[in-house]
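Much of the work behind modern protein science is quiet bookkeeping, done one molecule at a time. The protein below has been through that process, and both of its lines are reproduced in full.
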Amino acid sequence: MTVDRAGLERAAKIIIRAAIASLAVTATSAHADDSDDKLPSVLPEVIVTAQKLTQTLEQVPVSVGTLDGALMDQSGATGFPDLQGYLGNVTLNLSPTGGDFFIRGFGTLSTNAGFEPSVGTVIDGVFYGRSNFLSVFFSDDERMEVLRGPQGTLFGKNSTAGVFNLVTRSPKNINGIGGEFVLGENGQRAARPVLNVAFGEHWSARLAGNFSRDDGVLHNTDLDRPEINVDQNTLRGRLRYDNDRLRADIGAFYSEQQLNANDFQLIKSSAPMLALMRQYDPDVEANLDFNLSANVPSHGETHFKGANATVNYALDGIGNIDQWALTSVTAWAKQVMESRDIDGDFSPVPVIRDTLARPAPFSQYSQELRIGGHDDSIMGFGSGLNFIVGVYYYDSTFNSNDLFQLEDLGAALAYLTAAQAGNPDGNALFRIGGVPLAEAAYPVGRLVDIAAPLLTPVIGQRQAATVTLDQETSTAALFGQMEYFFVDDWAVILGARVGHEHKKGHFTSQAEGLFIPLIADQQDHDSYRNRSENEFSPKAGFKWQPLPETNVYLTWTRGYKSGGFNALPLNDKNLEFDPERATSIELGAKARLLHGSMRVSAALFDTNFKNLQVSTFATGSGGAAAPVFLNAASARSRGGELELNWLTPLPGVAFYGSAGYADAYYTHYPDAPACAVPSECPNTNADGTTQDLSGRPLANAPRWTAAAVPSFTTLLPGGALATFAVDVLYRGDRYVDVDLAPEKLQRETTEVNARIVLGSRRGNWLLSLAARNLTKEVIVDQVLDEPLAPGNYAAARSDRGRVLSANLIFDI
């Protein structure tokens, strides 16, 4: 693939000239406003809402990783997944059609819409039931917070692994325009305008847009088109009213996102399979590069919209309580997946595709009402109380529908023949003569196509199956948490959440033709299920806070992730699964040191999961296999995190570092899905269809993660600033699929980024020139077996190679 470097260089020159012009215009005023010629020597205070109260980072007894909006703007990141490396024990993948979050080794893949996430997504205080809502909000952000470990007491169900808490920029009481312009390699460009308006003393509004385009880094040699070329058009608005006691914040958003959605490329293919595929695409290859070959013109398109209102009324002084407030959070959101296509065999051979039979909507409504605040004592006893008590209601509906279709019967027969000819554990008859039989696969398939009209009365006109799930969910909960300082420095932490959830599901599966039931164990059915669950998520612990900017804590927490329904109900077996629960002990410490120039936090944890929800395959009659989702495992993760921010004594030299260690493994999983080639996996059971993964690591769980970010900032003439920074981001070995086959091990990676940032000290303009992945690390986030072709593998590559970008940010 060629890159228009000349065009990129011209665009970069234009941006640089614009920045120099801005520097010349603002130099005098900047010098006048920034007469202090010294760089900061004290770290700014970080205010977080990790416990639904406004607290400094050092006061929160939870392991919290934070990134501010400035780093997000300057890093050259094109989305939230590019930021995961800065935070220990965090793994993140996100697209318009799905999101996969993992914290401390635990998480849930979005391969089945019936699985709800293990990491909660909270944006401006609103919980979203689908992680990909986050893709709407990658611009105009104040900070992101990652809360590690179970957070069920305050955030409810589906936060057993943690919470991703995003805070966007709120309206300011000024009139101004601003925004960001981005240019990058592979045709990346974005315009993200911002308009802020003040209406008198109490009213203000903010409108932010994100209009981004990406030419895609992958090329499909069969269809001769780019892939993963995300286009996004997003508008977000906020209106705020603020007086002494009352603050009301009303927000709304709308976003359209689409892309060519083929992202799996073959990385290993047998000689017979490769020979067959080259009959359809002579350029097909089995290498981990930036080319793939798929015959299905896969397209993904999702529309998002939503609105929310947060009202906060101060009750200070009422009832002799020093500081407390009543807060109401009302929200509605909807996403409609207009299209989502999958080439089921990842190849140019027209075998099987999975697409939507019709648009798939998800909608949610939530209402939270809480009281929280601080009092100096309880009826004169103790030394202080931080508290929060509330009620929560959540309602959602969604429709999942999949159309599985055999594209070409002759091609499918040729595919199966070639697959078995190259299967190292396959029937020996297919390997006699090896290559000659493989060469016969394509002409035999063509003969079947010619004879298809004669076979139609027997096998049916179309080989397809449509499966659907319509689901309704309602949840209600009471929750509360307090920190009670029974003496000046020591507090007891107590909290609990009690909830009830009810789900209704309607499943259908309807086949046309003969072959889908044989291949996928499909059975026609029309089924209904109802399930009710009770949730109890307690928290207890102690906190020692000898200074306002220091705390040491020990907590015990439990989290709950709701059960649900299989959204791929090919048959009427395994239609539902039970909830999973997590129990965690955490010991942590946080402090601001060296007169405020250093911030350090550390945590040790031990988390156990029971009834872990997993995906596997069930073998039916005739060897057919269908995906099922059930509770089949228990797991444990032990380790810790360390984060450090330091403004060193050397003028302008700063350092940020993070490290995470998580030994995440199955404690009991005796019937895990076997590898497609059982002989490659030493723990395969005698039946050859399962394996014992007890004691083996969880997928998507690197044992070590680390980041080191040294930077140097200097003053330029006129009071402007120049910053030079390098990011070294390390992730250890990790498996990227559940069966832990050797081909699915992603080796350790060390990604190096660099950037030069020029800007005004007032913050009214900034230019960032970034280079990401200078080491050209090759990174995949998923490797799958090619269906029905044992020993063949396809991977989804997540890196873009080395990427140069320029960001111009201004605020007038």
Summary: The chain has one domain: 5-411+460-811. Helices lie at 5-33, 69-74, 152-155, 271-277, 409-421, 435-459, 515-520. Residues 5-411+460-811 form a domain with the Maltoporin; Chain A fold (CATH 2.40.170.20). The longest strand covers residues 384-406.
